[in-house]
Amino acid sequence: MWIILQRPADHRVDATSGVGADAHSIVIITQIHEINGQRDDLKKFKCHIDQVSIQLVRHYRQFYDSLLSLHFTLNDIDGAAGLVLDMCRCRDSLSIRKDRNESYKTCLGPIGSYHLREGLKIQIVPELLQKDSVFKMDSKQELVLFSNGKYVLSNKALVKLIIAYKGDGRIGELSRLMLSLQKELGTLEGGGLISDVIDACIQLGWLETAHDILDDMELAGAPIGSSTYMSLLTAYYKGKMAREAKALLKQMRKAGFVVDLSDEMVMTTCLLGVVDKNRMHTRTSTSIGNLGLAESLVREMKKQEKAILPVVVTLRVMEVIGHMKEQNMYCDKWMYKSEFLKFHKDLYRNLKASNTRTEAQSKRLEYVEAFRKWAGID
After folding, report:
1. What pLDDT, on a 0 to 100 scale, did the predictor assign at position 363?
2. What pLDDT sits at residue 186?
3. Distances (CA, A) of 342 to 25, 43, 69, 336, 367
4. Checking DSSP bridges between strand 107-111 and strand 120-124, what pairing results, if any?
5. Is there a contact between 233 and 245 (Cβ–Cβ < 8 Å)?
6. Do residues 178 and 250 both lie within one domain?
7. How far apart are alpha carbons 13 and 107 in whole angstroms?
8. Where is the domain boundary, 81, 113, 146?
9. Domain extent at residue 83
10. d(CA 322, CA 328)
11. Which PROSITE patterns does the record match to this protein (predicted)?
């Protein structure tokens, strides 16, 4: 792929500065870094791109999409969450940004193979957008969208966060992230995003997760609509989970819902799907929530299951190492360790054998633990 880097024609760019990459070229470089898995190089661009003027923000949507994609690829859920919050907070900073009439600021960005002893640098001008660019890049919209002047997460990005946090058993952190996002969106009343997440969990049968998030919201003083409580309560009744239903009903009464109905009447109402709006203070349907979010969760989980085989093949490197030892062949432990840390740093780090759900997952965990021990990875 050829990248055309033009000398900026605008008089506000110093003529002695040489060739500079404008917004189009920077995004092309971004996509190359994503293909090559060079997240660290992309992160070096971020501080400059975060500060572009409001007119250029939409042109850098692809940059944040690519960086977020690499965070997920490298199983860095904390990095992904941090980037998501940065993007949402960008909305507030955009509102106070003004047109910039000063000279375009230039900076150096990394480019080329990281195997070189002295990495190549390219001068970038994030504030410059050539109108007559000879190359237009294809822009994929998978994780980050741009709507109404701000960055927003796609369902695909949201479900990746949910699955990652749930898989690590970090529901409390998921709740805090969702609450922060909801505050940034300015939709605290009625639950909004958080209610959608809880409802999606209920639809998938993740009732414990749904209840944990609900508890977290109560502790944080964030109001959740009565319909979300009713949806979870209905799921408990239908699943014959009497103890959990009783505990939730107690919470609902404390929150001011169904205070004038007996337990039996509430159960009958849930199971029959008949709701008195004046007495229950909820919607008539118990089938609520963002159906698209639940469907996206199912699709993403199926996709991740299909990706398990390549991971298993990668982890079978232990068999190769064992054979090399038997044949007295040299084994570059440092190389194996470096590659593992690059692509699987946090793989199953918080998963215990007693918590594995299937025999296949248990076997994968065994491979990972054996490799970590051999490579000396804590």
Report:
1. 74
2. 58
3. 27, 15, 15, 10, 17
4. antiparallel
5. yes
6. yes
7. 12
8. 146
9. 15-130+137-146
10. 10
11. PPR
Number of domains in the chain: 3
Is 301 among the domain residues?
A: no
- Residue 100 inside a domain? The answer is yes
What is the per-residue pLDDT for 130? Answer: 72
Q: How far apart are CA 28 and CA 35, in angstroms?
A: 11
3-state secondary structure 19-31: CCECHHHHHHHHH
- What own/partner pairs with CB < 8 Å and gap ≥ 24 does 334-340 have? 336/371, 336/375, 337/375, 337/376, 337/377, 340/371, 340/375, 340/377
What residue has token string 């690499």? Answer: 70
Non-local (6+) Cβ contacts of 180 within 8 A are 85, 88
As given in the structure block, the two tokens for residue 16 are 């002695």
Which two structure tokens, joined as six digits, stand for 338? 């470096």
Low-confidence ranges of the chain (pLDDT < 70): 1-19, 90-107, 109-120, 131-139, 185-191, 274-291, 306-315, 317-320, 323, 357-358, 360
Q: Which two tokens stand for residue 93?
A: 């900073």
- Answer yes or no: do 356 and 258 share one domain: no
Q: What is the pLDDT of residue 280?
A: 44
- Count of residues in the chain: 378
